[in-house]
């Protein structure tokens, strides 16, 4: 009897110690954002490399969105960057996240590039289309089908990770690829090809977000608010006064020529949102309305709790001057 009491006491102490450790870890943990390789995340990397936030902030690049989500589920990161469709399809009440920043919208920077001899969508029928096996790749393909009134059975899908897009296209393993910047510019510059579909044809549908795990957010509001403020300072500088410095940084880090970079930005293929625009999108219901409309294109794993995904009360705190 006494042995059993001692055993229970030891187990109880271990549980309490574990809970205290977990709680303190959440308070002391750095912001760790997982991203895939996408030009729209470049200013987050600038924020990290400029060491503005000292040691409290880390951005980690993964080969694909699938790897980002895996790292998030395994709690290797507490924040992540996703597109509209990925946000909706991967939401779960077991481990909910909240949108922190609407980074950008793609209006021509996500594309389907076909071989040089394929000049129009109908010529792709019966051909192999390479895409990443994630929500965005499938979403772009689905919208391509709908707009052109095609059937999925008209094409052969080949799942290719983003870092293999160039190689697969170059070696002729695929006839077209669903890809994005800066990979798209590299393919067109070196190999040639025709753009037969892009996010310009579906304006206001492909947003990019920074999201954070809710339990981390609730215990680290000051740290996160600092990150948000510094990020928007960079965006303001880029838009208003000092774009050359940022263009040079993005060009070097993404191995894309200044000419191609200016082509992307000057034609608004990626539109970056500032703090004022984020307030409009997040705090006035505009984004929620857009997301609810886009939901119809998916079979969601479970209903999205928008009061948590777009938490107006917390976002008001974070965006208050």
Structure summarized in a few sentences:
This protein has 321 residues and is of the alpha/beta class. The protein has two domains: 2-106 and 205-319, D-Maltodextrin-Binding Protein, domain 2 (3-Layer(aba) Sandwich), CATH 3.40.190.10; 110-201, D-Maltodextrin-Binding Protein, domain 2 (3-Layer(aba) Sandwich).
Give a structural overview.
The chain has 321 residues and is α/β, with parallel strands linked by helices. The protein folds into two domains: 2-106 and 205-319, Periplasmic binding protein-like II (D-Maltodextrin-Binding Protein, domain 2, 3-Layer(aba) Sandwich); 110-201, Periplasmic binding protein-like II (D-Maltodextrin-Binding Protein, domain 2). Helices cover 49% and strands 18% of the residues. The protein contains 15 helices and eleven strands. It has helices spanning 2-28, 42-49, 65-73, 84-89, 135-148, 165-170, 183-191, 214-219, 221-240, 243-254, 258-266, 275-283, 286-294, 306-309, 312-319; strands spanning 31-35, 57-61, 79-83, 97-106, 110-114, 128-131, 156-159, 176-180, 194-198, 207-213, 270-272. The strands form two sheets. It has a six-stranded mixed β-sheet, with helices on both faces. A five-stranded mixed β-sheet has the order 7-6-8-5-9, with helices on both faces. Strand 6, helix 5 (135-148) and strand 7 form a beta-alpha-beta unit. Helix 9 packs across helix 10 (243-254) and helix 12 (275-283) packs antiparallel against helix 15. It is globular, with a radius of gyration of 22 Å. 36% of the residues are buried. The model is unreliable at 17-27 (pLDDT under 50).
């Amino acid at each position: 009897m006494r042995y059993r009491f001692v055993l229970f006491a030891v187990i109880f102490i271990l549980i309490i110690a574990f809970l205290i450790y977990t709680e303190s870890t959440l308070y002391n943990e750095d912001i760790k954002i997982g991203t895939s390789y996408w030009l729209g995340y470049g200013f987050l990397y600038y924020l990290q490399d400029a060491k503005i936030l000292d040691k409290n902030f880390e951005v980690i690049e993964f080969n694909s969105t699938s790897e980002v989500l895996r790292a998030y589920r395994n709690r290797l990161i507490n924040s992540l960057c996703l597109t509209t469709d990925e946000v909706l399809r991967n939401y779960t009440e077991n481990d909910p996240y909240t949108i922190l920043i609407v980074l950008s919208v793609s209006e021509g920077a996500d594309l389907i590039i076909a071989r040089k001899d394929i000049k129009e969508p109908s010529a792709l029928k019966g051909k192999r289309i390479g895409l990443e096996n994630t929500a965005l790749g499938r979403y772009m393909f689905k919208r391509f089908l709908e707009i052109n009134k095609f059937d999925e059975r008209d094409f052969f899908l080949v799942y290719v990770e983003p870092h293999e897009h160039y190689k697969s296209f170059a070696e002729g393993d695929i006839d077209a690829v669903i890809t994005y910047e800066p990979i798209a510019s590299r393919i067109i510059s070196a190999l040639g090809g025709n753009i037969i579909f892009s996010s310009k044809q579906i304006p206001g549908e492909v947003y990019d977000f920074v999201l954070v795990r809710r339990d981390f957010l609730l215990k680290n509001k000051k740290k996160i608010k600092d990150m948000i403020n510094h990020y928007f300072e960079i965006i303001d500088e880029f838009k208003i006064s000092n774009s050359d410095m940022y263009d040079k940084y993005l060009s070097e880090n993404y191995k894309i020529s200044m000419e191609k970079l200016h082509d992307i930005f000057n034609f608004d293929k990626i539109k970056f949102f500032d703090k004022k625009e984020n307030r409009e999108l997040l705090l006035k219901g505009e984004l929620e309305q857009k997301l609810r409309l886009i939901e119809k294109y998916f079979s969601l794993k479970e209903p999205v709790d928008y009061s948590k995904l777009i938490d107006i009360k917390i976002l008001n705190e974070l965006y208050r001057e």
